[in-house]
């Protein structure tokens, strides 16, 4: 059964249709990519899934639950994490704190425990810290652990963005252009992370990316959007042959 | 090609008085040329551009060593406004358009430092829409609602309105779809030819950057590690592998095959 | 950890739990305990006059209030220009009891700890209520909404007969195990009560900040959209921040009512709200110890300027208002200079001093 | 009926004075995102300077209005230079607090002069007989006040919409770094914003001073009263300030005309603006005309 | 060397009502200086600490505690709010207090507060009586224009009681004003209810604004009680030179009660007052202010009490001063040069000067109307 189903979603801003009648099926355990020209509605799609926008029409289901009108924290609590296209970090905090924060929902202790900081609260906080350290290891962020996120270079911030989403330990990870602003080498690193995430942690990945090389190489499934409509979908090979896609996005090389 | 328009000599930049980011960077930009600056994340490319355009101060950074000369004048410690007036304008990383201003207002703002009369400015304003016809459809829309590519064009047009001698672009291809990248870089080339604007472009997308530039620098951890005419660098095997993803066989290497170990770069 | 905890100089943590400790070393703990002991015993050794004891009590009450303000404004980033009104809510809770059951009813005089707690909760309830606009409003719009609350509060108190139209509502003298707290012991007695409350609340806040309940505050301050995506309900968190602040303010208000043995609305005006803000900022927004420094500094300054302007008044031609002018002038000047040269408040000096002693004698 | 119309006209008159008083706040906010809590003090300073010029130095009153405005223009500019420039880039709340401290400093300075505590009034220079239309009357002072308000507000609206400097002031509030990159001098913009705010404050101070007499407490209280006005209108909208000013004026006049003394209520004119403000904010969180922050994730 | 007697005064030199507090402080300061320099108490000196409380009860309380620590023998207070708020402390400390607030409530449940002059209530009732007496046809319709605070509201109930006790007028409305820029709405409303007299109990600047609006709307009576127009009258803090400064021509014909001599009506007292002001270099404004006179007056009373206790050869303590004040009546009544009549205190009457003078603005100065008078109804309703 499909993990995430987007059925007939339309999203309008005033007169502008950012998405129109989009259908998507995201299979569990795979990497699904969404591509398309700028302003095609890719980010809007992720926003609809993660609850930042609510579709004007249509529905989105996760497993059996309808999340069309859920707010972001509800979606996140269902196990869908999100990394943003434009950096949305807690820029006044250190990398470590950014990651610790992401575990909010997984920490179950009461307010009273917190005030007195005994028993449960202290134990769970220690576990939380341990978990975050594994992510820091995994994403190779050790050197930046204690530095203020706002002072890091663009590329590193993007990495923190992905790491933070990972910290949520989600079922589905939505990545919005995680490789923008990186050079070849760094892209390779991120690709490796993404593939490891998918393989080792069995997380379903939804990827929005402009680097066709990356997309074609690692996706299991691709959706192509243009002006808010799906103009093609399928395996990388299928998409690469699709004339509409070539015209709208890839261009003749 | 004429003499050097910009000369960056051995500068060192420190943030917050403690974090040293640039460790002796030198660049020369010839008049009328296109020069590209490549490098890894956090290498200090953005910092270099900030240093040249006098915008370190707001970030609590400062040039501690070395000097920068623009058009023969020492600009090391000048403020951003003065440097713009002298003719060096930067298009900042992440575009930074004025979200709540209309597209046209964004472009007009670029002319704030100019003193050559409103007629000339209006003329240039028209000219921008010739360069970026895409923008002429959306002149009265809030810039914040424009797509990424449009915002990049707005940012470039805005910078051009200052009638600069030298334009510095910080990752213009960031987040743009392949077709748009092409369009933007075509535009850059055109601007260089038609307006005779010298261009310094910082890029992650080495392929396109090397394709349009005459000369290139590669930067890592605050130092220039490699430089040369773009043509030569395009053939450098390390550049090929690390910046363009081309294997020794000349084929594009697949991301699926990336290994967890890293080959050492020869220049390190 | 090294065998002798007294000699430990760095952070030798082998488990993450050790990093959560309130005191990293025994030295820290001992210094702190000593400090507390001093706080408890000095008034016995060096008794102060009533006036100065009143000033000291006042500072402690301000610390309670500012701790609350710091949570909502410093940590959660929601500017509140109505904090004095919340303090007023606490004070008027006590006053309401006095109005309905009489100001020397046994509940007022004997069960005051319960009433103080109740005032805290009433404050929290109003805090949550006033925090509701935070679900929709941001930045200055929210700040002015809190200003509106301040104004409406003043108006209600000033016009409702139940609240004696803002005139003083008397509060009776309380009883302790030793009997009625008389005029001479009054200020000393409340010094100890408030001190205990400050210490308890201080530890409460400190613990809270190490947990998700504290972190969520900081998250909505820095980026509420990202917080939302991380599973933190930003709206609820903001309301909760206001409720927390309201609780502290309510407690402070109740203490104020008992200390002054009366409640009048002039103690809870916009001007007071602004001084609470000043204290929070001068102390250092978003730091716990700033909540202590701020009130101490501002109240101390107030006192000094008063002395100064009095002294000036003696020597300057009395036809000039110089003496009176000095007070607002220097108050403003200190705040402005502080912010110009140390926008992060006294807490920053504290941090610098601390890192200096840590590294000493090895600088850098 | 003339009861109703008189209240209507008074409401509009009072409202336009609110608008003018609020204008300075909007000007500063529009370019620097700072809410200036010292605005009331600047209004008072402007009024007292003008008073001193007229009465103390005997300068003809219209001329001293102009000079007073110009002096306040430079005064506000230097306030910005001395106190606020260092704080560019600091958290907004620090800057707001500086303006609060500034208010206190100006208080102190004004207290040194007799203006701090005593009452004064401008010499009468306009005809004393009010203009009356069908039972509704308006004084010359009020009329002139409304006209000056309209003129100033019209001028500033044009300035922000059309002139490059005006646009660049808005640009600065959007993105300071972006603005610097195109060569806008952020400090100059802030200085200009404060200066123009000072100018409008002086105008407001003179008009209020003509209506109520010169009393420091009264004048300085305008610094707070204008907050519900600008918030209702939308912090960065000049048009908003005008509309909201008039709405608030009407609310106050109608509240005191119809509510006070009738339902056991009193002093509603003081509190109604805040209540209405809260209600309207629930539906329009950016005020009536404030721009919606573009927040795209 | 002589002894030093400590007194304390806490008042609003800055903040709300400082326009009154400022000259008041000057009066107190100057008179005590004068006492010390001219050896009125022989070798003994008075040391009166004057401190600003910005009209806030909390600060007043702190000042009071400090004065107590210093060992003051008599206390001078200012605001209504703080006088009411500290009532219990005065009782506990058994210290005589002279406030600048003439609020009648100060006298309830309290034995130590001595009002220098007739209470606001008495003044307002006296004004009401004046209105009733001089109104020609039928019942006079009256509105009250009140400061929205304890200070303003206090006397309203007493005025209502007086009406209930048979005073022949109708109180149509009691308006608590705000910070209005324009009172047109209110004035129009009053007109619509056929109000003819407006009794004010607030401070000068709102009255000034109202008077200006009324004159603009053409509603101000040209002569007292003119039909279809409004006649304005007010209590102590509504009038004085500042009102004239603020309202200009609009306050012509404004009626005002005051227990102090005004410099606009030359007399022995005012000459002394002006001389004192000149001695200490006060400007004209302060010198001519009735609040300056009020300040001098409390200082005079305090000095006189000390002098009398001394004359009896007793020690100057809180207690002796308190007792001395209580016996300041009959033949012992004290007549300071600042007031309309003698100061009388007793165990049952702690309002000092009972005489009131009605003044009215004529050609830009306050002029006496009739002889000093006393309220009749106030005695009835007590
Ligand atoms: N909050 C909003 N209000 C109005 N229009 C919006 C909003 N968010 C997105 N849009 C519009 O919707 C369209 C789709 O935008 P979206 O950000 O989804 O594009 P995208 O495919 O992610 O582009 P890019 O590759 O540049 O990130 C654009 O035209 C954009 O202007
Ligand atoms: N304001 C700042 N304060 C402190 N450190 C900074 C600041 N800005 C940048 N740095 C540090 O300087 C180094 C270089 O940053 P810079 O932004 O110049 O890199 P870059 O080459 O542009 O990288 P990218 O390609 O990721 O944009 C980074 O390590 C970064 O953490
Ligand atoms: Mg996108
Ligand atoms: Mg960069």
Features:
heteropentamer, A: 253 residues, alpha/beta, Rossmann fold, six-stranded mixed β-sheet, four-stranded antiparallel β-sheet, 10 helices, B: 268 residues, 10 strands, 26% strand, binds adenosine-5'-triphosphate, binds magnesium ion, ABC_transp_permease (chain C), cell membrane (chain C), transmembrane helix (chain C)
Give a short synopsis of this structure.
Chain B is α/β, with parallel strands linked by helices. Chain B has nine helices and ten strands. Chain B has a single domain, classed as Rossmann fold, CATH 3.40.50.300.
How would you explain this protein's 3D organization?
The complex is a heteropentamer of chains A (253), B (268), C (364), D (297) and E (382). Chain A is an alpha/beta fold and 253 residues long. Chain A has a domain at 4-79 and 170-250: P-loop containing nucleotide triphosphate hydrolases (Rossmann fold). Chain A has helices at residues 42-50, 72-78, 95-102, 111-116, 120-138, 154-167, 184-200, 212-218, 236-241, 243-250; strands at residues 4-13, 16-26, 31-35, 57-62, 65-66, 80-83, 172-176, 204-208, 221-226, 229-234. The model of chain A has no long low-confidence stretch (mean pLDDT 86). Chain C has a domain at 42-269. In chain C, helix 3 (50-75) packs across helix 13 (290-315) and helix 13 runs antiparallel to helix 14. Chain C starts with 15 loop residues before the first helix and ends in a 5-residue tail after the last helix. Chain E is α/β, with parallel strands linked by helices and 382 residues long. Helices cover 41% and strands 19% of the residues of chain E. Chain E has helices at residues 18-37, 57-70, 80-85, 87-93, 120-134, 150-164, 184-192, 204-216, 241-247, 268-279, 284-287, 290-311, 318-326, 377-381; strands at residues 4-11, 45-52, 74-76, 97-98, 115-117, 140-146, 169-176, 197-201, 231-234, 255-258, 351-353, 356-362, 365-373. In chain E, the strands form 3 sheets. A 7-stranded mixed beta sheet of chain E has the order 7-6-8-9-10-12-13, with helices on one face. Chain E has a 4-stranded parallel beta sheet with strand order 2-1-3-4, with helices on both faces. The termini of chain E are far apart. In chain E, 64% of the residues are buried. The chains are: A alpha/beta (253), B alpha/beta (268), C mainly alpha (364), D mainly alpha (297), E alpha/beta (382). Chains in contact: A-B, A-C, A-D, B-D, C-D, C-E, D-E. The A-C interface holds A 50-52, 71-73, 76-77, 81-82, 84, 88-93, 97, 100-105, 107, 109, 111, 113-117, 121-123, 125-126, 129-130, 133, 164, 168 and C 15-17, 19-20, 204, 207-208, 210-216, 218-219, 221-223, 225-234. The complex binds adenosine-5'-triphosphate (2 copies) and magnesium ion (2 copies). One adenosine-5'-triphosphate sits between chains B (15-16, 19, 21, 39, 41-47, 59-60) and A (151-155, 181). Chain C: One of its GO terms (cellular component) is plasma membrane. Chain C: It comes from Desulfobacula toluolica (strain DSM 7467 / Tol2). Chain C: The chain crosses the membrane at residues 31-48, 60-91, 111-132, 139-157, 189-209, 239-259, 274-301, 322-341.
């Amino acid at each position: 059964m499909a993990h995430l189903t987007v059925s007939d979603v339309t999203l309008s801003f005033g007169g502008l249709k950012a998405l129109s009648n989009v259908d998507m099926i995201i299979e569990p355990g795979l990497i699904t990519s969404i591509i398309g020209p700028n302003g095609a509605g890719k980010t809007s799609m992720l926003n609809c899934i993660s609850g930042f926008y609510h579709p004007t029409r249509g529905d989105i289901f996760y497993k059996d639950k309808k999340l069309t009108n859920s707010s972001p924290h509800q979606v996140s609590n269902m196990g869908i994490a999100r990394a943003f296209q434009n950096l949305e970090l807690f820029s006044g905090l250190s990398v470590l704190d950014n990651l610790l924060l992401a575990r909010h929902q997984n920490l179950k202790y009461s307010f009273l425990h917190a005030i007195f900081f005994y028993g449960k609260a202290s134990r769970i906080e220690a576990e939380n810290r341990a978990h975050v350290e594994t992510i820091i290891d995994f994403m190779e962020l050790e050197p930046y652990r204690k530095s203020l996120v706002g002072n890091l270079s663009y590329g590193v911030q993007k990495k923190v963005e992905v790491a933070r989403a990972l910290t949520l330990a989600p079922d589905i990870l939505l990545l919005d252009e995680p490789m923008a602003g990186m050079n070849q080498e760094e892209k390779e690193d991120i690709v490796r992370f993404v593939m490891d995430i998918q393989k080792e942690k069995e997380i379903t990945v939804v990827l929005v990316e402009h680097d066709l090389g990356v997309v074609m190489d690692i996706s299991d499934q691709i959706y192509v959007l243009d002006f808010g409509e799906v103009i093609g979908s399928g395996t990388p090979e299928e998409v690469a042959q699709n004339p509409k896609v070539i015209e709208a996005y890839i261009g003749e090389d | 090609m004429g003499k050097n328009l910009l000369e960056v000599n051995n500068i060192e930049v420190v943030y917050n008085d403690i974090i040293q980011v640039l460790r002796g960077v030198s660049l020369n930009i010839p008049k009328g040329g296109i020069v590209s600056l490549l490098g890894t994340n956090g290498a200090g490319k953005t910092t270099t551009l900030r240093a040249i355009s006098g915008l370190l101060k707001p970030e609590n950074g400062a040039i501690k060593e070395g000097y920068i000369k623009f058009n023969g004048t020492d600009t090391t410690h000048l403020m951003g406004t003065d440097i713009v007036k002298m003719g060096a304008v930067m298009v900042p990383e992440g575009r930074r358009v004025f979200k709540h201003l209309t597209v046209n207002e964004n472009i007009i703002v670029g002319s704030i430092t100019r003193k050559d009369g409103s007629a000339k400015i209006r003329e240039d304003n028209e000219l921008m829409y010739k360069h970026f016809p895409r923008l002429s459809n959306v002149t009265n829309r809030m810039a914040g609602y424009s797509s990424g590519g449009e915002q990049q064009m707005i940012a470039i047009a805005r910078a051009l309105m200052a009638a600069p001698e030298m334009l510095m672009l910080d990752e213009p291809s960031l987040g743009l779809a392949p077709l748009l990248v092409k369009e933007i870089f075509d535009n850059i080339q055109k601007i260089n030819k038609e307006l005779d604007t010298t261009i310094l472009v910082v890029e992650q997308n080495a392929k396109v950057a090397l394709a349009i530039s005459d000369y290139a620098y590669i930067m890592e951890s605050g130092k220039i590690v490699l430089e040369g005419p773009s043509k030569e660098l395009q053939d450098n095997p390390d550049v090929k592998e690390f910046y363009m993803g081309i294997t020794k066989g000349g084929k594009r290497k697949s991301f699926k095959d990336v290994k967890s170990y890293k080959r050492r770069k020869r220049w390190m | 950890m090294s065998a002798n905890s007294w000699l430990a100089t760095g952070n030798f943590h082998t488990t993450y739990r050790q990093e959560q400790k309130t005191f990293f070393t025994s030295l820290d703990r001992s210094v702190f305990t000593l400090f507390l002991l001093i706080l408890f015993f000095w008034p016995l050794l060096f008794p102060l006059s009533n006036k100065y004891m009143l000033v000291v009590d006042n500072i402690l009450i301000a610390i309670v209030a500012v701790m609350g303000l710091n949570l909502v404004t410093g940590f959660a980033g929601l500017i509140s220009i109505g904090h004095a009104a919340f303090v007023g809510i606490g004070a008027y809770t006590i006053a309401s009891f006095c109005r309905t059951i009489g100001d020397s009813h046994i509940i007022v005089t004997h069960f005051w700890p319960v009433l103080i707690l109740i005032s805290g909760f009433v404050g929290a309830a109003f805090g949550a209520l006033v925090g509701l606009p935070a679900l929709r409003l941001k930045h200055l719009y929210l700040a002015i909404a809190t200003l509106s609350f301040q104004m409406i509060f003043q108006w209600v108190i000033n016009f409702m007969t139940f609240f004696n139209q803002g005139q003083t509502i008397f509060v009776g003298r309380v009883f302790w195990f030793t009997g009625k707290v008389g005029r001479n012991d009054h200020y000393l007695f409340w010094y100890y009560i408030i001190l205990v409350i400050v210490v308890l609340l201080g530890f409460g806040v400190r613990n809270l900040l190490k947990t998700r309940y504290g972190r969520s505050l900081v998250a909505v301050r820095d980026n509420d959209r990202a917080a939302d995506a991380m599973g933190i309900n930003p709206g609820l968190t903001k309301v909760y921040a206001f409720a927390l602040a309201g609780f502290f303010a309510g407690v402070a208000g109740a203490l104020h009512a008992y200390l002054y043995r009366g409640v009048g609305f002039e103690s809870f005006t916009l001007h007071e709200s602004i001084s609470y803000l000043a204290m929070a900022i001068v102390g250092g927004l978003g730091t716990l110890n700033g909540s202590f420094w701020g009130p101490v500094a501002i109240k101390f300054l107030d006192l000094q300027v008063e002395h100064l302007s009095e002294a000036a008044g003696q020597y300057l031609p009395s036809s000039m208002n110089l003496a009176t002018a000095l007070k607002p002038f220097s108050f403003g000047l200190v705040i402005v200079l502080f912010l110009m040269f140390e926008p992060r408040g006294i807490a920053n000096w504290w941090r610098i001093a601390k890192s200096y002693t840590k590294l000493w004698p090895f600088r850098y | 009926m003339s009861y109703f119309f008189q209240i209507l006209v008074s409401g509009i008159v009072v409202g336009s004075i609110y608008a003018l008083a609020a204008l300075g706040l909007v000007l500063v906010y529009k370019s620097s995102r700072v809410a200036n809590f010292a605005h009331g003090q600047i209004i008072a300073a402007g009024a007292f300077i003008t008073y001193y010029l007229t009465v103390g130095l005997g300068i003809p009153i219209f001329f001293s209005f102009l000079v007073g405005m110009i002096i306040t223009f430079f005064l506000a500019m230097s306030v910005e230079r001395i106190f606020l420039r260092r704080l560019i880039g600091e958290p907004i709340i620090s800057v707001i607090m500086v303006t609060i401290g500034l208010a206190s400093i100006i208080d102190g300075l004004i207290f040194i002069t007799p203006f701090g505590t005593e009452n004064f009034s401008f010499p009468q220079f306009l005809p004393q007989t009010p203009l009356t239309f069908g039972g509704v009357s308006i004084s010359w002072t009020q009329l002139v006040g409304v006209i000056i308000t309209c003129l100033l507000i019209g001028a500033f609206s044009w300035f922000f919409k059309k002139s490059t400097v005006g646009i660049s002031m808005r640009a600065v509030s959007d993105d300071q770094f972006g603005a610097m990159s195109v060569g806008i001098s952020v400090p100059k913009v802030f200085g200009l914003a404060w200066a123009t705010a000072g100018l409008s404050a002086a105008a407001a101070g003179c008009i209020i001073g003509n209506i109520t007499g010169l009393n420091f407490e009264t004048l300085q209280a305008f610094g707070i009263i204008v907050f519900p006005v600008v918030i209702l209108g939308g912090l960065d909208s000049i048009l908003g300030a005008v509309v909201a000013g008039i709405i608030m004026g009407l609310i106050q006049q109608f509240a005191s005309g119809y509510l006070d003394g009738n339902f056991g209520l009193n002093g509603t004119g003081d509190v109604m603006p805040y209540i209405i403000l809260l209600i309207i904010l629930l539906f329009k969180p950016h005020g009536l005309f404030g721009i919606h922050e573009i927040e795209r994730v | 060397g002589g002894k030093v007697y400590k007194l304390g005064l806490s008042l609003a030199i800055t903040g709300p009502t400082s326009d009154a507090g400022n000259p008041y402080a000057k009066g107190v300061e100057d008179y005590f200086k004068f006492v010390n320099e001219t050896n009125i108490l022989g070798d003994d000196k008075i040391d009166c600490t004057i401190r600003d409380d910005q009209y806030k009860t909390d600060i007043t309380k702190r000042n009071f505690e400090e004065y107590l620590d210093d060992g003051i023998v008599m206390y001078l207070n200012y605001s209504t709010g703080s006088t009411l708020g500290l009532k219990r402390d005065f009782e506990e400390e058994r210290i005589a207090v002279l406030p600048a607030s003439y609020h009648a409530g100060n006298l309830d449940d309290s034995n130590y507060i001595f009002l220098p002059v007739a209470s606001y209530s008495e003044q307002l009732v006296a004004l009401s009586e004046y209105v009733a007496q001089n109104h020609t046809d039928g019942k006079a319709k009256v509105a009250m224009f009140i400061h929205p605070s304890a200070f303003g509201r206090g006397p309203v109930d007493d005025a209502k009681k007086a009406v209930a006790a048979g005073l022949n007028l109708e109180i149509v409305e009691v308006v608590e004003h705000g910070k209005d820029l324009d009172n047109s709405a209110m004035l129009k409303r009053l007109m619509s209810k056929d109000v003819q007299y407006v009794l004010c109990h607030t401070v000068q600047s709102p009255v000034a604004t109202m008077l200006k609006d009324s004159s603009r709307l053409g509603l101000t009576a040209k002569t007292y009680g003119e039909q279809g127009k409004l006649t304005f009258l007010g209590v102590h803090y509504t009038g004085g030179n500042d009102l004239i400064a603020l309202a200009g021509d609009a306050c012509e014909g404004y009626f005002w009660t005051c227990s102090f001599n005004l410099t606009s009506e030359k007399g022995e007292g005012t000459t002394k007052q002006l001389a004192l002001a000149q001695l200490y270099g006060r400007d004209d404004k302060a010198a001519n202010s009735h609040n300056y006179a009020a300040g001098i007056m409390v200082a005079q009373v305090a000095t006189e009490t000390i002098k009398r206790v001394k004359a009896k050869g007793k020690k100057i303590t809180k207690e002796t001063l308190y007792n001395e004040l209580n016996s300041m009546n009959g033949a012992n009544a004290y007549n300071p040069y600042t007031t309309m009549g003698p100061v009388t205190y007793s165990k049952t009457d702690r309002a000092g000067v009972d005489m009131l003078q009605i003044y009215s603005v004529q050609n830009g100065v306050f002029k006496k109307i009739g002889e000093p008078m006393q309220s009749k109804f106030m005695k009835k309703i007590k």
